[in-house]
Amino acid sequence: MTTEEFGRALRRWRDRVRPEAAGLPAGGRRRAAGLRREELARLTGISVDYVTRLEQGRATSPSAQVVTALARALRLSEDESAHLFRTAGLAPPRPELVPAQITPSVQRLLDRLAGTPVAVFDASWTLLTANALHVAVSGDPSPLRGNERNIAWQHFINGGLGRVRYTPEQAIAFETALVADLRTASARYPADQRLRRLVAELRTRSAHFARLWDSGVVGTHRAARKTIDHPQVGPMTLDCDVLTVAGSDLRIVPYTAEPDTEDADRLALLAVIGTQPLGA
């Protein structure tokens, strides 16, 4: 535990919080605009003496419950709370469930990439959303429900990803990275029952997945080239990147074509004919 840094952070953030912002009366004359130690003690349910010893670096090893109460009372941001936990020698708490919210910034990015096929997945590789051009490239996911929207489920149980064609080498790399990602997500979000049920179903219904899972394979998703067998414009070889959004574990997956190629021409054609409203 970095006792001096913990105490400095505690004092700095206590001085920043005005009493009325914490639901307390400002009351009389105050030497500083922030919370008094006794006020912070009241908000957190710990003694004034313990708050004093923490700030002075004389108390060590506060519990996670104490640090959580301090972070809540001091109105700390997620990053500030994580810093307080680390200076207390504790691992910052993680969200219990796989994040599935599309943040406003990610939505703005999708809106500005209308000319690029883009999909967004959560940490378990369940599809959250896709723009119109990605739907035109890969097919309409709107009828899919539950695990049917999960890439691992589609690949290992449903017999593949529809229009995507892999070489044997590409398939091995893809499967290795996919299983490794699911194992990482399972360790990061152990309380997520949906994820636990997904992995259990994959292990039960796919012997291949079970072998990979039990072997402890390690891999990461890297930039790759995929061939899409499209029923309207023909085969397209596209570059596929995986971009991870820090703090939310969202996976943004764009497809791009090399400029001045037949693949680029076919993708441009699909952007015209494949995104038209039905019946146009």
From TrEMBL:
Gene3D superfamilies: 3.30.450.180, lambda repressor-like DNA-binding domains
One GO MF term: DNA binding
InterPro entries listed in its UniProt record: Cro/C1-type_HTH, Lambda_DNA-bd_dom_sf, MLTR_LBD
Lineage top rank: taxon: Bacteria
Domain HTH cro/C1-type residues, every copy: 30-81
PROSITE patterns, sorted: HTH_CROC1
Transmembrane segments: none
Pfam family, one: MLTR_LBD
PANTHER family noted in UniProt: BLL4672 PROTEIN, BLL4672 PROTEIN-RELATED
Name of the protein in its database record: Helix-turn-helix protein
